[in-house]
Amino acid sequence: MDLITHSLLGATIGQAGFRKKLGRPALLWGSLGALVPDLDVIIGYVTDPIANLKYHRGITHSLWFGPLVGMILGYIIWRYYTKKRRLYKHPQGERVCLFSWMLLMGLVLLTHPILDLFTGYGTQLLAPFSNYRYAINAVSVVDWRYTLPLFIAVIVGIFKVNGRPLFLAQPLAILALLFSTSFLFYGWHLNNKAITLAHDDLKTRNQVFSDLQSYPLLFQPYRRHVVARNGKDICVAEVNTQTPRPLKWQCTQETNIPQIKYLRESSIGKTFEWFAQNQTFAEIIKTSTEIKVRLYDLRYPLLDSPLQGMWGIEAVWSQTGIMQKPPYFFQQRPKFSMENFLKLWKVEP
After folding, report:
1. What is the helix, strand, coil percentage profile of the chain, to 5?
2. What is the pLDDT of residues 337-346, one digit of tens each?
């Protein structure tokens, strides 16, 4: 999920369970603590994008990281208020608050990777013991329907009346957490429904595919991007789980040439295949002077070109087979148009 949503979730947890004992600082530290796991993106800025793909959502997103580091951060925060208490008598520095600080920070650090688990990006929950990327594909990495209740709960929790928090602040925060959690499982249900609808549609066409996966589209919980694979054959379609109808499949067959094999078996190619959970498609772009091979991540398609991804890796060869550019990572943004803009918000395809 995006940083704003993680921050709001941490603040809402602080409001729902710790405001009474720790006061408003529970919202602040809950908000900041929830961002700690994403500090691993710094690796990508100081090294290269492929390192970011490899290490982001790694150790800092492991299930053991939150409880362990949370206790340490909770102790540091408690010591901070203990020192200030000598001058300002901060109640947050009392000994009875130590466990609350540890529990708060442990929870916000643990819920961060759990929330990321429900997106399609992939999260290494068992790192460094295993680099397997777990993903439920329930919601998009950005979805205002999940974020808005948390935002409202935090805003209400910030205000005070006569020096006291609003009486609805804690119940509203609890309600926001219940709603947002339910939304994640609802998205999981929608993804399974999209797979079922796609399977039934393919069955009516007498088409059989060995692998069928569904991924949420940006801002769209009801519409899903479905990828069907059978060896070199690949078909993609958009499924509307709210108003099911016959699907419009776009199908292609991946060409078997040495350059594609080289790109996939290169060091960067193996990392990218692992990152994309083998959900890739190779495109060949030929000109009079060169052969460009692009490997797309099909989990994040372009709105107007669903067989292309928003990022991938590519390499360039001459027509005689000599490599001109070694494999490198690239990103591309969808072309802006009113049609694409409406696709992000409307329910009907």
Report:
1. 50, 20, 30
2. 666 666 666 6
